[in-house]
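Recall that a protein's primary structure is simply its ordered list of amino acids. Everything else, from secondary elements to tertiary packing, is in principle encoded there. The following example makes that idea concrete.
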Amino acid sequence: GGGGYQRGDNNGNGNGNGGVGKTGDNMGGQKRAEIYTYNSKDMVYSLAWSVRKDKKFRLAAGSFVEEYVNKVEILYLDETKGELGLSQPSLSFQHPFPATKIMFIPETGTGMADLLATGSDYIRIYRIDDTKDANSSVEMKSVLSNSSNSEFCAPLTSFDWNEDDLNKIGTSSIDTTCTIWDIEKEVVDTQLIAHDREVYDIAWGGAGVFASVSADGSVRVFDLRDKEHSTIIYESPHPEVPLVRLGWNKQDPRYMATILMDSSKVIILDIRFPTLPVAELQRHQASVNALAWAPHSSCHICTAGDDNQALIWDLSSMNQPLDGSLDPILAYHAGAEINNLQWSSAQPDWVAIAFANNVQILRV
């Protein structure tokens, strides 16, 4: 149940907001449902789509419980039954602390190990074996920890797995650093003090280039060939307003998107013109929590937040100045504040959202 779509009508007849409401519950047998929901026992925070071409309808979801023992569940869409859920109990496993982020290895091929990474106190990499129906397993392969003193570690706010160099994972931490790991050797490749305050998110923009956002209010770009320097792409208009999320447009790496803490705006940046946003998306009615660039289109982005909405925007007019008047082309209302969102690269017409105890996948 619950949830409805509103599609904007952008064919220039002045009817910008009058979309068709659309829900996936009453399609009858003729058309596949547009929405599938999984109810977990606990609140869901982190989310990831599988990238492998043979496991397209697989997701990982991490719980958010304020205690040590949390869990990660690996979910599948059973298309014959029309159900999203755990195919076997062994594909739910305990995890220390809530995972701030989860990623499957960003590799479409099927020849490599089937790996899943999570970040909380450390990066953990798990090997999944779900080929045998009856006895699937998830085993921990490695823990990437560089603190010699095991009593203390600075929690990881986020990480990103480099799709151009699968041996690299970059992490961001509240201790102001970003760390680049060599996964095979399980050693730190590079650690640098990236910001003046906590680093909240990190995103790769190529094999040796990454960007990060921080409580110091800046977006910075780093090139591993020149570690002493970084380029400030944007600083929040009010000093010390943290930037909490960063998305780098994979289809057009000139563009990035970021979110200010407790703000309903999404800032779109063009790295060729630092400091001045090319667009501000202003149709959320409460704080924005997550964003995802379309994996298959250079000009679409999805955003979601505490107004229970996931909005999809068409930014193809970015080469003209956008003054904040842009409307989304699709709006979806969930049943509660949306904490996270991921757009599937293996199936670009599916977006996953997490709200309350639910994981929902939506056909867009």
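The two ends are 17 Å apart (CA to CA). Confidence is low (pLDDT under 50) at residues 9-30.
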